[in-house]
Fold this protein.
Amino acid sequence: MQIRRGPAAVRGRVGQPLAEAGKVPQTMNPSQKTCHRESLEDDGKVLKAYVLRTFYFERRFFAVNQKTLSLPLFKLTLVSSLVALSVVGSYIKIPSPTGTVALDSLPGFVGALSLGYQEGALIAFLGHMLTSLNVGFPLGVLFHLVIAGEMALIALAFRFLFLRWGYPLAIGVTTALNGVIAPLSLVPFFGWGFFTGIVVSLLVTSAANLVIASLVHRVLLKR
């Protein structure tokens, strides 16, 4: 008799958690069943309220932050792509004494026209630094930082002139800024020989960068 009672007792203990998990035991009286049912209903209401609050918060959050989350990410992707193209352009060089005259500023000018002032300045700055890095900073890191800053300002000026007077005047003035004014700032440090040796190649490359950037921007506007 004791051996037969053992499995029955085990089954009763194993079945007890099932009753606690939601199954109403048959041994409950009507008042206990009512209390048990009301407890389950209260738990369901609490869970439903929690789910609704979570859903409302997530929908409200993404509705408010959809533009602020997606737009910077999209611009960051474009800026990164144009910086990568600056690296490619840095290998397309025009013969010059320093070896840093290349098509690296082309993506910066495209970014200035298409994305905005800050984006274009950043791309132009990084483009010159990457070009100088390819040839080992022949003028020294400090001077190339100064030149990169000048390229950023020139990209800002190009966008400003384009918005005021269009492509032709913007290309002409920016070519003069990049090909004449910028190297003049280095004459006190490297002399007039440096200026005369670099001005022609710099003017040609500046004009090429600006013309191609304007053509690319015009094509993008038509799409």
In short: The chain has two domains: 9-65, 71-222. Residues 1-24, 61-70 have pLDDT under 50 and may be disordered. The two ends are 90 Å apart (CA to CA). The helical segments are 2-20, 30-89, 106-114, 117-134, 141-165, 167-184, 187-222.
